[in-house]
Specification:
Layout: H1 2-16, E1 34-37, E2 42-44, E3 53-57, H2 63-70, H3 73-82, E4 87-92, H4 104-113, E5 120-123, H5 128-132, E6 137-138, E7 140-144, E8 150-154, H6 173-182, E9 197-198
Parallel strand pairs: 3-4, 4-5
Antiparallel strand pairs: 1-2, 1-5, 3-7, 6-9, 7-8
Length: 203
């Protein structure tokens, strides 16, 4: 109980001091932020300057998120790209009492049970970071290059559906963007419509 209380206090503190700037735009600098992970450790986006970073807004109870985890679509991408030294940050902006809000131990259990491999799961219960990135849905995906520039923002793929069968038919925007960037090429589709459940912000 004490450990859980300390974790909750740390999450609240770090979310309050997160960056509260105007919404980021593609081809502009991605706002830095400071959040805590499932172990209560402080994580800054700037810690990963010099590396590609994927931001994934998530809510484990959202049917659209379930689609991509139960099919192994997101976990397989996490494993594929973290093996290539790309940082994958899954961010939960669900507020306390709202759908998708969880604590660190529950987050670790979910990661293990879904064979997921994010670099960190981060907690944004005040919604400060989510709003600074204009994150609207779960999932909502962003890719930041080693210089700290946002190179992609939008949906995970091209078919707005909660059906697992549609994954194979869709263009995976995140995979396509990362493939291009790793090859030294420009991203063809830099901004796409996100789809999924609304982020369950505090207000």
């Amino acid at each position: 109980m004490i450990k859980k209380s300390i974790f909750s206090m740390a999450v609240l503190l770090m979310s309050l001091i997160g960056t509260a700037s105007a919404a980021v735009k593609v081809e502009q600098a991605a706002p830095d932020f400071n959040l805590v992970n499932s172990n209560g450790q402080s994580v800054n986006l700037s810690d990963y300057k010099g590396k590609f970073v994927v931001l994934e807004w998530t809510n484990h109870l959202c049917p659209y998120v379930k689609k991509h985890y139960e099919s192994d679509n997101i976990p397989s991408m996490q494993r594929k790209y973290t093996d290539q030294d790309i940082v994958w940050l899954s961010i939960i902006s669900s507020a306390p009492g709202k759908q998708g809000y969880i604590d660190g131990p529950k987050s670790d259990d979910l990661t293990a049970s879904r064979n997921a491999a994010p670099t960190h799961v981060l907690f944004d219960p005040e919604g400060t970071v989510g709003k600074s990135y204009a994150a609207k849905t779960t999932p909502h995906m962003y890719i930041i290059d080693p210089e700290g520039t946002l190179k992609y923002a939008g949906g995970i793929d091209s078919i707005k559906s909660a059906k697992i069968a549609d994954i194979a038919k869709a263009e995976n925007y995140v995979d396509s963007a990362l493939t291009a960037l790793l090859a030294g090429n420009d991203v063809k589709k830099k901004l796409t419509p996100p789809y999924g459940c609304s982020v369950k912000y505090k207000s």
